[in-house]
Design a protein that fits this description.
about 270 residues, single chain, alpha+beta
Length: about 270
């Protein structure tokens, strides 16, 4: 159950450490000994040297705070990041829970960046995707939301001046391009189905008492990683733009049942290791 499925990417030590510390120490400001964190990440197949290197790297970047007592070092999430981590965690767990309303107005970004500009063009596309925009045409990206300040910052940071941001309504045409075609909803649906099926298998095994504490720890973290990836890549389209059988809300309910069901066993394993 805990093994990653084909096509998925194993998390690195630098990704696992903040995730696990946020999952199991989010109410605590205690420092966790590095030796305990090494044991914890070993459950995920991460070598001790890779964990220690990641701890050092995250500390230098200000994401972790370290303290030393003789030869022993301990870490916790950096205080400056705790509040943001709590907000992000609550947002992640609420993702897919509520209907998304819409005023019918699209935000459109039209730009002209030469194909020869091999540096800025892909960076702009990456920035727009991160904001939930989809490419209706090569130089025209859209979203039903209004991330206007973030768009302005992105265009300014990339030095793109040949661009305009519009708020507009669609004029429906019988042979026009479907606006939702700006996103690959077919692939996104498949990803929701994978998470839902994985969650169902976990719940079946939990109901049958066939999940060990070590399995629960690894499976719970991998399941959360998949849900986080979905939340980051889903453009959060309003309900009226999506098919009636869109899988986000049902998948969320199944994810929640599996994630919460694994919790007690996973916490038991963390206590054993730490």
């Amino acid at each position: 159950m805990g093994a990653m499925e084909p096509g998925s990417k194993a998390a690195t030590a630098s990704e696992l450490l903040p995730t696990l510390m946020g999952d199991y120490w989010f109410r605590s400001r205690a420092h966790i000994p590095s030796a305990a964190l090494v044991r914890l990440l070993a459950e995920f197949g991460v070598r001790a040297d890779a964990t220690r290197a990641a701890l050092s790297r995250l500390s230098r970047r200000g994401r972790l705070e370290g303290v030393r007592d003789g030869r022993r070092t301990a870490y916790r999430l950096a205080p400056a990041l705790v509040d943001a981590a709590h907000v992000q965690g609550r947002r992640l767990m609420r993702f897919g829970a509520d209907p998304i309303e819409w005023d019918g107005v699209w935000t459109c970004v039209a730009f002209s960046v030469p194909e020869s500009d091999g540096r800025r063009r892909p960076r702009l596309r990456k920035r727009l995707r991160a904001l939930g925009l989809g490419a209706l045409f090569d130089g025209l990206w859209i979203t039903p939301h209004a991330p206007l300040d973030a768009l302005d910052r992105g265009l300014a940071e990339l030095g793109i001046t040949e661009a305009t941001v519009l708020r507009a309504t669609e004029v429906p045409r019988p042979d026009g391009v479907a606006m939702v075609d700006a996103w690959d909803l077919r692939t996104l649906r498949r990803r929701y189905d994978v998470v839902a099926q994985l969650a169902d298998r976990i719940v079946d095994r939990l109901d049958g008492g066939r999940v060990a504490a070590t399995e629960a720890l690894v499976a719970r973290t991998e399941l959360m990683g998949r849900w986080r990836s979905l939340a980051l890549s889903d453009p959060r389209l309003p309900d009226e733009l999506l098919p009636a059988d869109w899988p986000c809300r049902p998948a969320r309910a199944r994810f929640e049942a599996a994630y919460d069901g694994l919790g007690p066993l996973a916490e038991t394993r963390v206590r054993e290791l730490v």
